[in-house]
Design goal:
Blueprint: H1 19-28, H2 34-43, E1 52-53, H3 60-70, E2 76-79, H4 86-99, E3 104-107, H5 111-117, H6 128-143, E4 149-151, E5 168-171, E6 174-177, H7 185-195
Parallel strand pairs: 1-2, 2-3, 4-6
Antiparallel strand pairs: 5-6
Helix pairs in contact: 2-3
């Protein structure tokens, strides 16, 4: 990292990435296929302390498989909101076992916060944003402490809020990597077939985008793949990707 030699802050010892470095990475890897890009990122020690954050949803196996082919020791972070489908938890374990990724970190909500703000466990039913804040956003922020970079599985085609998604973003001094940003649904399906990757068991039942069980429903034919998330609410994202350094035209409400 170009800024590695900078005098480190006495409070946060992470050598922060700069916007110029992020722009340079986007330029360097423009048009480069995903697997060679990942190999170069790890081989050139660009990432520093890194991890892949996975929801273990319907498309998660692709990114995890790609990273396992390059650096299987990469930590895999999973936020267990304590509202997950049992099928998701089983899929997580089976998939990581298959890929040989044994550095696993499961993060859960702060029990004291849950007791104070969601003692009934029903906050999702009347305040989904508040529920996500205490069950997803805060735990993932805690998990990213000490990381220089992290991998996200977002794809531009998934929704309008993810259009024009760059491969590299800046988030609170961290490098945020979106290796699948320019992949299409056909690309993902082809990779699943080529690598014979297991599908999430709920996908066959019509769950095309899977989050917490109370806020996830089946997607009807012709609907957007994320239509089953927070159905009935004016909400399209959980909030873990909101840029700390300010809003971005590429990520206005994510």
């Amino acid at each position: 990292m170009a800024e590695a030699a900078r005098k480190l802050d006495t409070i946060d010892v992470r050598p922060a990435f700069t916007r110029a470095e992020v722009e340079a990475l986007n330029a360097r890897f423009a048009g480069v296929e995903t697997l060679p890009m990942l190999r170069a990122l790890f081989a050139d020690n660009i990432l520093g302390e890194t991890a892949v954050v996975s929801s273990f949803g319907t498309e998660s196996a692709v990114l995890l498989d790609l990273i396992s082919r390059v650096a299987p020791e990469t930590p895999v972070v999973f936020v267990d909101t304590l509202k997950m489908f049992p099928e998701t938890l089983a899929y997580r374990d089976a998939l990581l076992d298959r890929l040989g990724m044994h550095n696993r970190r499961t993060i859960t909500p702060d029990p004291e916060v849950i007791a104070a703000k969601d003692a009934t466990g029903l906050r999702w039913s009347y305040d989904p944003d508040g529920c996500c804040a205490i069950r997803k956003v805060e735990p993932i922020a805690r998990a990213k402490q000490g990381l220089d970079s992290w991998f996200s599985g977002r794809k531009a085609f998934q929704s309008q809020t993810r259009a024009n998604l760059p491969r590299f973003e800046l988030e609170d001094g961290r490098l945020k990597v979106n290796p699948l940003g320019d992949w299409t649904k056909d690309d993902l399906d082809a990779y699943f077939a080529e690598r014979d990757l297991p599908r999430h068991p709920l996908e066959a039942e019509g769950y095309l985008s899977i989050g917490c069980s109370p806020c996830t429903s089946r997607v009807m034919p012709g609907e957007d793949p994320r239509a089953g998330r927070w159905r009935g609410w004016d909400k399209v994202e959980c909030g873990i990707h909101t840029p700390v350094d300010g809003p971005s035209e590429d990520d206005p409400i994510f």
